[in-house]
TrEMBL record:
InterPro entries in UniProt: Sel1-like, TPR-like_helical_dom_sf
SUPFAM superfamilies: HCP-like
The protein's name in its UniProt record: Binding protein
Domain of life: Eukaryota
Gene that encodes the chain: Vigan.01G291700
Pfam families xrefs: Sel1
Length: 276
């Protein structure tokens, strides 16, 4: 027979969760799942609206059934799980952006603020943008900046790009090119075409690469060296780094990405020709 001590290692301890707690957790999981199903249905309807809205009037009656479907499903998602921030955010967009029956901008604004305060990064980014550009009577730049920072903490690509622009121009904060480059770099890693172009352009202008990026690149280079690559791959080449950024933009379908890549190729050909 196996010793008791050895058997004990393979026998799971009895759960410390009470039946009441277990039922609560199961109910919460069920509500979350149901809410996500409603959000998916609403999002699909809204996606169809966005697909055709550029080719018709904003209040085109043909869009009404789709908008109603989206609104009903986002509302049902909130009924299923009132803590769901995504449902709040998308419902706020419907109220504030689309000509959906029963739309109310005040309701949309309230939902957006709630979602942002509950930690939804999309809502924090959207609220930061609204406070910066749509509030002529209140000095809300600092408030907008605070919401953008919260979204940046969750690595929201749009917020990273906008915060990079803020640091680059020195708008309401001290101008900081290194921080701007870091923001553009992180946003580009998440596929943001504008950030990739901004980052690549700054690198080609000779902006010094901040230490936060060089450390990250050194770690990647060390990993590459362990895989058998040369030590030279650890060093940062600004032109090659810029090329990577323009390739990200090109993959996202950004025309500027293709133009910058073409310019780099032309410059390389010119240097080779002069070398001969």
């Amino acid at each position: 027979m196996l010793p008791r001590a050895l058997l004990a290692r393979f026998i799971q301890k009895s759960s410390t969760v009470s039946p009441f707690q277990f039922n609560q957790q199961r109910a919460l999981h069920s509500r979350n799942k149901k809410a996500l199903e409603f959000i998916a249905k609403g999002w699909n309807a809204l996606k169809e609206v966005d697909r055709v809205i550029d080719y018709c009037e904003l209040n085109d009656k043909r869009l009404i059934p789709l908008l109603r479907t989206a609104k009903e499903n986002f509302e049902l998602a909130l009924e299923a799980d009132n803590t769901n921030t995504h449902a709040r955010y998308w419902l706020s967009r419907l109220h504030m952006k689309y000509h959906v029956p029963g739309a109310n901008k005040a309701v949309g604004a309230a939902l957006l603020v709630e979602a942002a305060e509950m930690g939804d990064p999309d809502a924090q980014y959207a609220l930061g943008c609204h406070l910066r550009v749509e509030n002529d009577y209140v000095h809300s730049d600092q408030q907008a900046f605070n919401y953008l920072e919260k979204a940046v903490d969750q690595l929201h690509p749009g917020a990273l790009y906008l915060l990079g622009a803020v640091y680059l121009t020195g708008d309401c904060v001290k101008k900081d090119i290194a921080s701007a480059l870091w923001c553009f770099h992180r946003a580009s890693e998440k596929g943001h075409a504008g950030a990739a172009i901004a980052c690549g352009s700054l690198l080609l202008k000779g902006v010094e690469v901040p230490e936060s990026l060089t450390k990250f690149s050194k770690k990647r280079g060390a990993a590459a060296h362990r895989r058998g690559k040369s030590k030279g791959s650890v060093a940062i080449d600004p032109v090659e780094m810029a090329r990577e950024k323009f390739e990200i933009a090109a993959k996202a379908g950004c025309e500027l990405g293709f133009k910058w890549l073409a310019r780099l190729e032309e410059e390389e050909r010119r240097v080779l020709t002069e070398g001969h």
